Amino acid sequence: MSDRYASFARSAGGSVLVKRLGLPNPPNLRRYDADHPLAGPVRIAGEGRFAAGIEGWYPGDGEKLGGLVLDATTLATVEDLRDLYDTVHPIARGLTPAGRVIVLAGLPAEAASVEVAAVRQAVEGFTRSLAKEVGRGTTVQLVRTAEATEPETLRSTLDFFLSGRSAYVDGQVVTLGAPVGPLSQDTLADKIALVTGAARGIGADIARVLARNGAHVVCLDVPAAGDSLAAVANSLGGTAYQSDLAVENAAARLVDHLKDRHGRVDVVVHNAGITRDKTLANMRPDQWDQVLAVNLAAPVRVTDALVEAGLIPAGGRIIGVSSVVGLSGNRGQTNYATSKAGVAGWVRALAPVLADRGITVNAVAPGFIETAMTAHLPLVVREGGRRMNSLAQAGLPIDVAETIGYFAEPGSAGVTGNVLRVCGQQMLGA
């Protein structure tokens, strides 16, 4: 569904009126462009652990600064925090539209003193607030680095956040550690990827992104979506597999299929999900059970079956789809919020368990994304969802897909146990 307000606000007359009335002003977002991954030259600033190692990675073209990577990993005193101000203040108005700011900081839990821990936590407040100020489609992220993190481990994360692929990720925090399994900067060529709920919407875009990055994609959805599923799979040279993962023995049959047809699965994306919205007082037991079965039980059981069968090799990627609703709650969605909060908890708990096998586990948490479902929301609710974020607009299915593509990369071996919001820095909620 088109965003008519955004189109009006970007028009010549509309932009003047929006500015005069102080209305939300949705900027044009910079999305994936293989020929122009950067908005302009990227400056590497700061004197932390990584600045020298990443210098020269992003020469960029153009006169106006397209990105800033500020290495604040060695800040240790309250006075040191002045470096944040001194570095960003002179260029706060000088970034090109849809520019990128990334701040690197150490982990508070690894701090050598209470003051160092406080300083490292303070950097998060700085980045989240700056993200709400910069405007014009520019985004700001915090990358927390463990002591075991090496410069090469940063590469996929910096590439993602500096590029147009991260257009709708703003004001967020990612934690990096030592590589889990093999680390390379290769594409997904020769990899097998499984995407559930792939027949339409976000799932179809996830399949397309993984295929674009080189993977052979096994597209899975329920039999009722068979025609759409086949069309998606055929369009990207993948294969279709029909299954309702909520039924008994579905996981075992999927294991047999993948073992017989492919011998392994390198990337598993648990995207399939449903809603059965009612207030708890009006919700039937089957509406509760259906949502929990599809959204949470199926990812847990399928993953357990794949791991037990040894089908996910070292270097494997497991990616769940949570939701900002699971992190902040929403009226009329107790079943959905419960399931999506469960996905986030499952990812964080499973990541250290599978680290010894060389498998990473992460999740995305989409905010308000333009889909067939949101198109049917009441006008006031829909417009509120679109505007109540730092980018003043809804995201697109491709924004979720690109973030999953980042988690799936062989270069993302140092990224595990993260739940990353794709919400344009939603203003409300925990």
UniProtKB/TrEMBL annotation:
According to the UniProt record, what class of enzyme is this? oxidoreductase
Q: Where is the Ketoreductase domain?
A: 191-367
Please give the Pfam families that the UniProt record associates with this protein: adh_short_C2
What PANTHER family does this protein map onto? Answer: 3-OXOACYL-[ACYL-CARRIER-PROTEIN] REDUCTASE [NADH], SHORT-CHAIN DEHYDROGENASES/REDUCTASES FAMILY MEMBER
The similarity annotation says: Belongs to the short-chain dehydrogenases/reductases (SDR) family.
Oxidoreductase found in the keyword field:
yes
- Identify the keywords attached in UniProt to this record, alphabetized: Oxidoreductase
Show the GO MF annotations.
3-oxoacyl-[acyl-carrier-protein] reductase (NADPH) activity
Q: Which SUPFAM superfamilies match?
A: NAD(P)-binding Rossmann-fold domains (SSF51735)
The protein's matches in InterPro entries, at most eight in alphabetical order, are given as: KR_dom, NAD(P)-bd_dom_sf, Sc_DH/Rdtase_CS, SDR_fam
> What Enzyme Commission number(s) apply to this enzyme?
1.1.1.100
Q: Which SMART domains match?
A: PKS_KR (SM00822)
NCBIfam families, per database record = PRK08261.1
Q: Provide the leader sequence positions.
A: none
Which named protein is this? 3-oxoacyl-ACP reductase
Residue ranges annotated as transmembrane are none
**Keyword flag Oxidoreductase:** yes
